[in-house]
UniProtKB/TrEMBL annotation:
PROSITE patterns: MFS (PS50850), SUGAR_TRANSPORT_1 (PS00216), SUGAR_TRANSPORT_2 (PS00217). Keywords: Membrane, Transmembrane, Transmembrane helix, Transport. The lineage of its organism: Eukaryota, Viridiplantae, Streptophyta, Embryophyta, Tracheophyta. It is found in: Membrane. InterPro entries: MFS_dom, MFS_sugar_transport-like, MFS_trans_sf, Sugar_transporter_CS. This is Organic cation/carnitine transporter 4-like. Residues 1-16 have a biased composition (Low complexity). The keyword Transport applies.
Length: 547
């Protein structure tokens, strides 16, 4: 009996056998074997504590996924070269026909007295005569492309949050871009061309948002800002590469094929090495697959994820994070697939926390897009070499990305958004005050460059900011809605530019200043977790507001 053993031990002066000394240790060891201690963590905590926030795995995943941004640049900016109005010249022996080589336009010239330099196949304008009273058709094709982008952003934003997932949606849009891009090159007439551009826009609208979310979701919270800001380097690089490709393929049909083939190469060579987002697995209830991917991340980053650590949603992680189980069965139950959690824009609108965020994100993205695309069109309208001009515009945006990325984690998202919007607005206001004669032309040009410099930083920032404002279950849907608003701004921008004079700069200035005022009402998201569910966000944000 225990009492007699204890008394005999005391009487013998503590003289115990080795077996008796080892028995407590064996008891504790058996207890440890019989019980499995599990630690429940959300993804951000698991990345910070065990897997690593931005190691070799995230670097490879980020670079491969962000290459899709170059594809979006190809399909979007190809219209600059394919729909350009080429130079023209009077035909030899046509001097008596009234052809004036000093004329700024071919309108009014007698047919047959002039020709397009480069031939009819140099652009859609030359092939289908989209000049003079038909010139509006060039703008119509551009507007319908962005209209397709607006629709596609909403559709693929929802699909990537639901059953298709981030990688699945990116796969679908790459397939469609390849098909529609090549079919565009075979267009027999203008209206067929417009139809395929609309369809290309529909698929292109999902490329950027799917690639952005997929690239940044596996990144830890303290590294996510800089990583997200770096995605736009790939977009600008794509524009720069496209200008070189367009120079090599001056015929518009060849150019559409050359700009569509990279989507097929990305689909076949890059996507097989890209993993689905662990956050999407988690909210879809596929816990085992999410845990398998998190272990892969930890192993690739030369870290160790203990067996007892369990991935869970943020609303569940807010409860006790450690549980002790008397057998392995309970631990296994934690890893079993749970019911998928889904959400939609209706849920975003119903929630008082996310409703105002969605409104502000939509308004700011719309205003930013009007300024960004409007100023871009103003710069392109300069009478300079088109290929060099597009190349320089792409390169000029990169310093804005660098500066914004450096300051992002130091000053936060909100102050930087306000600052870049007002920076652009101020220089646009100055540009609206100066004339367009003499030396003032240079001043207005500099104001335009500085305006697009600031707005490029804002445009870059808004993706990471918008992504962090919403939980995983509705993140792509909300980001898609904001992208739709940006496409609406892109559609409106050409109509603002045709106002001429200082009016476009005045409109851009108002958009920049008002956008900065809206940004005042957004919450700061610096070093905040990426929430998984609406309930998790409402609980945490509501607690912060009550404090």
């Amino acid at each position: 009996m225990p009492t007699s053993s204890l008394s005999s031990s005391s009487d013998s002066g503590g003289d115990q056998s080795p077996d008796e000394l080892r028995s407590p240790l064996l008891s504790n060891a058996n207890k440890a074997v019989g019980e499995t201690e599990s630690e429940k963590l959300c993804i951000d905590d698991m990345l910070q504590k065990y897997c690593g926030e931005f190691g070799p795995y995230q670097m490879k995943h980020f670079v491969l996924t962000s290459l899709a941004w170059a594809l979006e640049a190809f399909h979007t900016m190809v219209m600059i070269f394919a729909d350009r109005e080429p130079a023209w010249r009077c035909l030899d022996g046509a001097a008596g026909s009234g052809c004036d080589a000093r004329a700024k336009t071919v309108c009014g010239l007698k047919p047959g007295s002039w020709e397009w330099i480069g031939g009819l196949g140099s652009s859609t304008v030359a092939e289908w005569g989209l000049v003079c009273e038909e010139k509006y058709k060039v703008g119509l094709a551009q507007a319908l492309f962005f209209g397709g982008c607006m629709i596609g952003a909403g559709v693929y934003g929802h699909l990537s949050d639901s059953f298709l997932g981030r990688k699945g949606s990116l796969t679908v849009v790459c397939i469609l871009n390849t098909i529609f891009g090549c079919l565009t090159a075979l267009s027999p007439n203008y209206w067929t061309y417009v139809l395929f551009r609309l369809l290309t826009g529909f698929s292109t609208g999902g490329v950027g948002l799917c690639a952005f979310v997929l690239a940044t979701e596996p990144v830890g919270p303290t590294k996510r800002g800089a990583a997200g800001m770096s995605t736009f380097y790939f977009f600008s690089t794509g524009i720069a590469i496209l200008s070189c490709v367009a120079y090599i393929f001056p015929q518009w049909r060849e150019l559409y094929i050359a700009s569509s083939i990279p989507s097929l190469l990305f689909l076949l060579i890059v996507l097989p090495f890209v993993s689905e987002s662990p956050r999407w697995y988690l909210v879809r209830g596929r816990i085992l697959e999410a845990m398998k991917l998190m272990r892969t991340i930890a192993k690739s980053n030369k870290n160790h994820l203990p067996e007892g650590v369990v991935l869970t949603l943020d609303e569940e992680a807010s409860n006790d994070t450690t549980t002790t189980n008397e057998d392995d069965q309970t631990y296994k139950e934690l890893l079993e697939s749970k019911e998928a959690i889904s959400g939609s824009l209706i849920d975003v609108i119903k929630s008082p926390v996310t409703r105002i965020r969605l409104f502000l994100a939509v308004a700011i993205n719309f205003l930013c897009s009007v300024v960004y695309y409007g100023l871009s069109l103003n710069v392109v309208n300069l009478e300079t070499n088109l290929y060099i001009n597009v190349l320089l515009n792409a390169v000029a945006e990169m310093p804005a990305f660098t500066i914004t990325a450096i300051l992002l984690d130091k000053y936060g998202r909100k102050p930087l958004a306000i600052g870049t919007l007002w920076f652009s607005g101020v220089f646009c206001f100055v540009g609206s005050l100066v004339g367009n004669v003499g030396m003032w032309k240079v001043v207005r040009m500099v104001c335009g460059i500085l305006g697009i410099f600031g707005m490029a930083g804002t445009y870059n920032l808004l993706f990471i900011y918008t992504m962090e404002l919403f939980p995983t279950v509705v993140r792509n849907a909300a980001l898609g809605c904001a992208t739709q608003a940006a496409q609406m701004g892109a559609i409106l921008a050409p109509f603002v530019v045709v106002l001429g004079g200082g009016l476009p700069f005045s409109v851009f200035a108002v958009c920049g200043v008002v956008g900065g005022m809206f940004a005042f009402y957004l919450p700061e998201t610096l070093n905040k977790p990426l929430y998984d569910t609406m309930a998790g966000m409402e609980d945490k944000e509501g607690a912060c507001l009550s404090v």
